[in-house]
Amino acid sequence: MKQTIEKQIFTYETLKHLPEGNYEIIDGERRDMPPTGFEHGDLEASLGEILRKHFKNKGYIAVGEVGILIKKSPLRVRAADVVYISREKAHEKPKGILEMPPDLIIEIISESNAAWEITEKVKDYLSIGVERVVLVDPQTETVSVNQKGKREITLYNFDEEFTLVEGLNIKIKDVVK
Fold first, then answer.
1. Which CATH class is domain 12-175?
2. I need a labelling partner for 120 at 20 to 30 A (CA). Which of 3, 31, 52, 133 fits?
3. pLDDT band at 15 (very low <50, low <70, confident <90, very high)
4. Cβ distance 79 to 56 under 8 Å?
């Protein structure tokens, strides 16, 4: 006897009741993501710590697949590795899935990420008004900086200094020691 599994479609109305897990919602459908490795998590934590020291109490930093609402219908929720949102945008510490665009998103690219998936994710982030999306790729040891309103992407090697956010220049090689 063949059993069919009914596909669950998530909507904006169910946003606050999503099941636990490591996934994104793309056009109402759950897209599972494999767990990341230690290097990925270490890099997330290190970048989050650098941002906390830099911004102190000027905003909020979160790491670890932070949910960000891209679109209400069909529901589209992305999961970001590192997020910074200023107190100007969020007057109090956000709870649950972000329904406003962060100022900065950092994505650490895993070996399991396809190039088209990353491109789609960056397009989604920029479409909601995220100011800067930084992609860190440990495999190629490169950093790509995408900015709202700019068509070009700036590419750096891990040993080159770049502006993570206004007033904060870093070299990723110093972060991954």
1. alpha beta
2. 52
3. confident
4. no
